[in-house]
Specification:
By secondary structure, the protein is an alpha/beta fold. It has five helices and five strands. Helix content is 51%, strand content 21%. β1, α1 and β2 form a beta-alpha-beta unit. α3 packs across α5.
Length: 150
């Protein structure tokens, strides 16, 4: 059925729960699992007197540190997947819109399912903050399995 599953992981406890479901599903159907962490691109705006080189260095330092932290985080999930006998890779990217990056990766990697946590924000907070899960559900061309908190 499914051969190539993408799991967006933001470092949250809910993403860990989604990972457990994704690992179990991938194992049961013998699918490959790819973990994805999207780092939000930051454009720093500083006072006029601050040099553009300093701004570029700060942005670069932020991105490097964020990548290192994300790689450590994903390595733990990859280890759990491999211990369960699942072929698993990880990918850390920098982007502006996580849901678009997720969609782009599903197309590039030929994924046939996304397993994703939903943070379950409701009411005004959900409306104002938006939801990457809802955006993905709206725009994805492949099935999306949404894992809710137990």
């Amino acid at each position: 059925m499914y051969k190539n599953i993408l799991l967006p992981h933001d470092g949250s406890e809910l993403s860990d729960e989604a990972a457990e479901h994704a690992i179990a599903l991938a194992r049961s159907v013998k699918a490959k699992l790819t973990l994805l962490h999207v780092i939000a691109h930051r454009n720093l705006v500083l006072d006029e007197g601050v040099s553009s080189r300093l701004v570029q260095k700060l942005e670069s330092d932020y991105e490097n540190l964020a990548k290192q932290n994300a790689e450590k985080l994903l390595a733990k999930v990859v280890a759990r997947a491999k211990a369960a006998g699942v072929d698993c890779d990880d990918l850390v990217i920098i982007g502006d819109d996580p849901y678009r990056e997720i969609i782009n990766r599903t197309e590039e990697l030929g994924c046939d399912l996304v397993v994703m946590a939903s943070h379950g924000r409701k009411g005004l907070e959900g409306l104002l903050l938006g939801s990457e899960t809802v955006k993905l559900l709206t725009h994805s061309r492949i099935p999306v399995l949404v894992v809710r908190h137990r």
